[in-house]
Zinc finger RING-CH-type
Amino acid sequence: MGLSYSGAGVIIAGVILNDFIKSVRSFLDIRRLFGSASSGSTITDKIPMDDMLPATKFEDISSRVNPPESCRICQDEFDGGDEVRCLRNCVHVYHKTCIDRWIQDDKMTCPLCRTPIVPDFYFFRL
């Protein structure tokens, strides 16, 4: 006779296979391997960073109760005129260039606490 598959089983297997193929494709992405630009867009290309995480001067946010002393990515101390980005989910502060480079490398979590950089509600707008 043979094995019979229900329609739901085939759909579940297809979804799992699709997720696996997407994972392998993103892992073997040419831009990640060689650092070159290729056609196609990623989720970070669609996120307007200046709208979502506006850059401000460190002196503007230093009025907080406990301002950080240094950027946790480059370990340099903040100066009053440094451009910084304050993450919305966890309120950690980094140099603008440091966190932009972090996000360009498809790292979408805070370097310090690993909370998502992009709030969940933002993906509903894409």
